[in-house]
Amino acid sequence: MKCRRCRAAAVIDLPRHNAAFCTECFRRHCREQVRRALDEHRMVREGERVLVAVSGGKDSLACWDLLRALGIPADGMVIGLGIGDYSRDSTRYARDFAEARGWPLQVVDVRERFGFDVPTAAAATRRAPCGACGLTKRHLFNQVAIEGGYDVLATGHNLDDEAAVLLGNVLHWEEEYLARQRPTLPGRDGFVRKVKPLVRLSERETAAYCVVSGIDYQVEECPMAAGNRHLAYKEALNAVEARSPGTKAAFVAGFWSRAHRRFAEARPEPTLGACTGCGAPTPGTVCAFCRLQARAAG
Ligand code: SF4
Ligand SMILES: [Zn+2]
Ligand SMILES: [Zn+2]
Fold it and tell me: CATH for 40-270, among 3.30.1490.190, 3.40.50.300, 3.40.50.620, 3.30.70.1530?
């Protein structure tokens, strides 16, 4: 197997691109995919300040590394979610990564800041932990980005994540979510712009990028992920992709170019006011996060 670009021995084959690459050409391919995502979806403008939502896993660390490699001096932020050893180790991977490179990383502990953590919130609400966790992360990342004067919040969602979420939203015809599912969510009324620079890279590519770039990351799955429906959607999509390489990318890209607008037009964004508890933007009087905090902290 030879590298498509330089004919050296290849270390990875990418059936979706009908290509194989050596280490250096593969890293270049990853940078190129991120640069194309940034350009196509107008993610970051010249001089804007970018904060990366870091988890300690492969995707968010690859995202941070690739943005920096493309000349965007992004900072990082990691949240201590309080999920036992898993959270402690994840934060340590993020810290080690940032310290080794001298890149600024903010570490925010949910329990210290809000008086609850993900397991207690899940127990208090009797809901799947990922719901409380996702809400907390979205709220806190946005809050810290606003406080820190950042223009953009970048997350490590990759092509497999986007395809799995899209499949779930289509299977259940979640029109509201479909209206909001896009690689760049414009900032407005107290929300910074949210972008997903890895949407053109698969999970396998981000893992390989970390390995060939010497990036150590948390390989353990979150112990609370069991029952997360997206895992089943990913398996289904992987089965289709194995038979027909390129299906995931076509599914996601086709949705954005051909279908997303119809959902967005049918469901205009609601008018937002300020939450009476925390000041965050909300369509109601008290935001979903403050309602969660009221039930979970106590
Ligand atoms: S799997 Fe669920 S609970 Fe665990 S970190 Fe992810 S969203 Fe949070
Ligand atoms: Zn090469
Ligand atoms: Zn609030």
Answer: 3.40.50.620
